[in-house]
Amino acid sequence: MPGARSRRAPVRPPEGAHYRHLVLHPVGPLPAAVYWRRRLVVLVVLLAVLGGVGWLVVAVVTGSGNSAAATGSTTSSEPVGTPALDRVVPSPAGVQTPTPPPSTPPPAPASPAAPGQEAGAPCGDDVIALEVRTPGSVASGSSPVFELVVTNTAAVPCTRVLDQQLQEMVLLDGAGTRLWGSNDCQPEASSDNRTLAPGEQVVFPLTWSGLTSEPTCTAARAPVAPGSYLVRARLDTKTSPDAPLQVT
Q: Is the model's pTM score more than 0.70?
């Protein structure tokens, strides 16, 4: 209507601005400091609650980890179960006892080797071989010829004194009694120092009268009775094996 005064609607501030105004400027019958203290208490309680919840979560997580580690440690420290004996010790039926090898006699001890002969040096008894050769069978009262054979068995030449006074033959009966000696009644002497080649033989013949004798050649001499006898030779300190002789 003309003349009527127009009315304006009040202008309302924005909601956000109103909220900020209420937060920053609390309204109430009490002083503003009281409301600020209440807000501070609520904030402290809220922070305490949030801190407790956070601590509880951390404790739960940490406790779970320690429990898992303790479980793993307990499991690893437990002794391994002892295996069953039938898995460790085989049954006697499955064990094969090795057959012992056949016993063999121990090897015979090696004979000591003869000392080596030096070339050109005197022949030792160990490298000189002596042999007596006889007819084997002679008639009683006959004069058979015996032979003394000297051999150098060394692999090198050596020297040996072969003097006749160093040579001797003797006749023995079955009991070993001496009945005749080549040096008893007709001893001979000579000087014979020879160099013997390896394997060389030297033969010395000797004729036996067929009679008995003794070293002094003072006893009566008689023909050797028929029987079995042995002839033995000597060259200085070297002795020959016995050779059999049959007197008929």
A: no
